Amino acid sequence: MCRPGDAGSLSGVITIDGLVKRRGAKEILSGVGFEARPGRVTGFLGPNGAGKSSTLRILLGLDRAQAGTALIDGVPFAALPDPVRTVGAVLDGSGAHRSRTGRAHLRWVARAGGLPLSRVDEVLELVGLADAGAKRVGGYSLGMGRRLALATALLGDPSVLVLDEPINGLDPEGIRFVRTFLRERARAGRTVLLSSHLMGELAETVDDVVVIDHGRIVAQGSLAEVTGAHRNLEEAFFALVSR
Question: Angle between the 102-112 and 118-126 helix axes, to the nearest 10 degrees?
Fold first, then answer.
């Protein structure tokens, strides 16, 4: 597994196959399957309620499927020998208590994960919060909160990043920062899987696209393949989900 500061031996293939999820009589996911690979940013698109978050929660071991598998390097999240150094995730906010400082939150997470405390200042610098680490999280702007969440995900220098709507609500400078950062992670051989409904911005960031609608995958492939004959990703998306 990759250790903080170690650029070698990167892995991180995400393989999702035949996921079925039901809540009562309603089927949330119907045979969902796709792959996200190292060195690529994979965009996971779909309307609200299409099944994006359910898929990511199952991948991260936060929910269970009735059928199918969601694997990272061939094993489920719960079976990873060192999950904090393998997968970094941002789902709902930063998870930090408002009364804690950003640095205190990161130190708490680092201790819990058995990570060196020196990593805290490294990730604060990495996400542009070096000057805000001593500030209480309750005083953070939305963009600063998003950066803190990303810093938390990066503490273990993971080979895989899983991000749910990472740019939602950010200002243009924040969006540009996240886009550039994710592209750099992919160029370094990491796997990046992100869900979003912001098509224009996603088209500037991703290599591959997976589109889900009503719990089913309706398209997947490279950005060029999914866009096809359409003028842009947004046009292709609405054509796919309106069938």
Answer: 130
Domain harbouring 79, CATH code: 3.40.50.300
Q: Looking at the structure, do residues 168 and 126 belong to the same domain, yes or no?
A: no
Structural domain ending residue among the three candidates 114, 139, 157: 157
Rounded Cα gap, residues 221 and 34, in angstroms: 9
Can you tell me the distance from the alpha carbon of 197 to that of 120, in angstroms, rounded to the nearest whole number? Answer: 31
Q: What is the pLDDT of residues 172-207, one digit of tens each?
A: 888 888 899 999 999 999 999 999 877 888 899 999
Domain assignment of residue 91, yes or no: no
pTM of structure: 0.90
The answer on 3 and 106 residing in a single domain is: no
- Average of per-residue pLDDT values in the chain: 91
E strand or H helix that includes residue 164: strand 160-164
- Whether 155 has a pLDDT exceeding 50, the answer reads yes
For the stretch 119-136, pLDDT in tens is 999 999 999 999 999 999
Question: Which candidate, 150, 143, 156, 91, places its Cα nearest to that of 126?
Answer: 150
CA quadruple 175, 180, 185, 186: dihedral sign = positive
Cα→Cα distances 204→42, 85, 178, 179, 181, Å: 12, 28, 11, 8, 12
Judge whether 230 and 239 are in contact, CB under 8 Å: yes
Residue 50 is predicted with a pLDDT of 93
Query: Which residue segment(s) compose the domain that 7 sits in?
Result: 1-86+160-243
Domains identified in the chain, total number: 2
Q: Which two tokens stand for residue 41?
A: 């940013």
